[in-house]
Amino acid sequence: MKYVIMFTSTPEHDAAVSPEVAQDVYARVYQWFQDNADSIEDSGAELQPVDAATTVRHGAKGAVVVDGPFTEAREAVGGFTLIDVADLDAAIALARTWPMLELEGTSVEIRPIVTDYSQFEQ
After folding, report:
1. Which neighbouring-strand residues pair with 54?
2. pTM score, two decimals?
3. CA-CA 20 to 30 A from 50: which of 8, 36, 70, 120?
4. Is the distance from CB of 25 to CB of 103 less than 8 angstroms?
5. 14 half-sphere exposure, CB direction, 13 A CA radius
């Protein structure tokens, strides 16, 4: 099954991580991608910080463009990748090995990808 795994963290916690710890964790993240290459469908991407975001939202008079995400969420998506594994248990097992989970405020969200669009066929 294919899943997107999204790597999230809390910006305040990210800012508190020392450069030495960050460098060590990033080295292990790089290794994690190499070690799990058989399950990874694409390389995914690391995203720029939340303050670099631009959001297009619904507005009463049409689409409105604003700087930043301005969401209510405490966590921000920092990156993502597409995986192809046997089932949700395998996706969870893979996500549990994400090196950044040792840092406070970090999580991995797993979402199955929609593969059946038959409900839209006429």
Report:
1. 67
2. 0.82
3. 36
4. yes
5. 17
